[in-house]
Amino acid sequence: MKLAVLSETRPGERRVALVPDMVAKLVSAGVEVTLQQGAGLGSYFDDSAFHESGARLAPDAKSAADGADAVLKVQAPTPAEVETLPGGTTLIGLFQPSSQIEVVKKLAESRVDMFSLDLLPRISRAQGMDALSSQATVQGYKAALMAADMLPRFFPMFMTAAGTVPPAKVLVLGAGVAGLQAIATARRLGAVVRAYDVRAASRQEVESLGASFVEIALETKEGAGGYASAQSEEFLAAQRELIGAQVAASDVVITTAAIPGRAAPLLVTSEMVDAMPAGSVIIDIAAESGGNCELSQPGSDVVHHNVTIRGTANLASSMPTHASALYARNISNFFLAMLKDGEFKPDFDDEIISATCVLRSGEVVHPPTRERIHQDVT
Ligand SMILES: NC(=O)c1ccc[n+]([C@@H]2O[C@H](COP(=O)([O-])OP(=O)(O)OC[C@H]3O[C@@H](n4cnc5c(N)ncnc54)[C@H](O)[C@@H]3O)[C@@H](O)[C@H]2O)c1
To answer: Exposed, middle or buried: residue 64 (CB in 10 Å: 0-12, 13-18, 19+)?
Structure first.
């Protein structure tokens, strides 16, 4: 059973799909692991550490993937990288297949099977494989630290001989995995934190972290599988109206609201930003999927009325050592679940395997991706 780990080539991507500890675990399970030389350098794991854990080193992607039953990555390959993958291999990573149609088509032509952890069902058996949650933990933590760094005020309250400094007021919109981590981090730094989510279940989680839950008198649609469902345009308009006063009273707004497979809901308008105190900061974690703030641009800072809006891009990659370590554990657990008697034999009757499969024997088996390809053709 042969496994290859390739370097990430997307600009700014510093994570790696396996770390030395996980190589050792896989090797002890009888897996032969080959690493493309230098693949771990962006996350501070050098080749010698991989070698000592039992990995073989290969000079380039093509020789690393040669003969591999499975290839592990973080990001989807570029079309050029697809050329390096041998037909019949299985590619596993954290891909968004319905927005990466060209690569999916190329992989299908090359007869590469594909699984994405982005599609993992949120059932308890899959928790150890949940890369979306592990990477969201990094995002939420980093978003709160960024806000504290950018804000021209202290987060904690200080009582000094030069006077008393009031604590910063932080509002977190969307209290899922990233939002809860942002709340916990901002609380540890001493800020006063309020948070809101459309899922009623999040109230208890928010309060258990010492933050207060923002009450909005609107009835929400609950989704399935622990996710929120998309709300109507009327709901979102009413929500914006009610959130406006909360935004205006905050020094920091961290937005993390998302609906799987859809554009992020618009929660903060430019009028709301106008009403924020000068020097305030908005960190929009959802910037890459359309943005929760009307003004955010993924990967850059926009200054509007003395408020800085940071649209984050690939935030998990900015803390690559731990992001990779967590991801490596998730992907190793997923991969090991596909082995039977030491051989690579994914069980397609298993909900986890069938839900995450995008390509099988040249066929697109993930319905939304198939639909997107069909729409492109017609
Ligand atoms: N294995 C499991 O059982 C498992 C694993 C992970 C997460 N979960 C559950 O799923 C929840 C959500 O996960 P996630 O963080 O990946 O979600 P996500 O990244 O898809 O969304 C982030 C948050 O945005 C919220 N949101 C969506 N629309 C909104 C709106 N208009 N206004 C305010 N908030 C809005 C969602 O409710 C969610 O909490 C978690 O908090 C957890 O309870 C379960």
So the answer is: buried
Rounded Cα distance between 196 and 171, Å, is 8
Q: Which residues are catalytic?
A: 122, 127, 130, 133, 227
Measured between alpha carbons, how far is 264 from 179 in angstroms, rounded to an integer? Answer: 14
Residues with Cβ within 8 Å of 89's Cβ and at least 6 positions away in sequence, in order, are 65, 68, 69, 70, 71, 112, 113
Q: Is 292 in the pocket of ligand 1 (CB under 6 A)?
A: no
pTM score, whole prediction: 0.94
Q: Please determine whether the domains at 2-119+320-364 and 138-318 fall in the same fold group of CATH.
A: yes
Query: What is the pairing mode between strands 339-340 and 343-344?
Result: antiparallel
Half-sphere exposure of 70 (CA within 13 A, CB side): 26
Handedness of CA 344, 345, 350, 356 (dihedral sign): positive
Task: For residue range 99-131, list pLDDT tens digits in order.
Answer: 899 999 999 999 999 999 999 999 999 999 999
Residue 331 structure tokens? 């992907």
Nearest residue (by CA) to ligand 1, atom 36, is 228
The residue among 228, 224, 366 whose CA lies nearest residue 286 is 228
Burial of 303 (0-12, 13-18, 19+ CB in 10 A): exposed
Q: Which atom of ligand 1 is nearest to the CA of 260?
A: 20
189: tokens are 């730094």
Report the distance separating Cα 111 and Cα 363, nearest Å. 9
Domain spans in the chain, listed from the N-terminal domain onward: 2-119+320-364, 138-318
* Residue 73: closest CA among 44, 109, 114, 102: 114
Q: What is the topology classification, in CATH, of domain 138-318?
A: Rossmann fold (3.40.50)
Closest CA to 58 of 35, 27, 25: 35
70 C-alpha to ligand 1 centroid (Å):
30
Nearest Cα to 294, choosing from 268, 273, 275? Answer: 268
Q: What is the largest CA-CA distance in the chain?
A: 71
CB of 195 closer than 6 angstroms to any ligand 1 atom: no
pLDDT digit string (tens) for 326-356?
Answer: 999 999 999 999 999 889 999 999 999 999 9
CATH topology of domain 2-119+320-364: Rossmann fold (3.40.50)
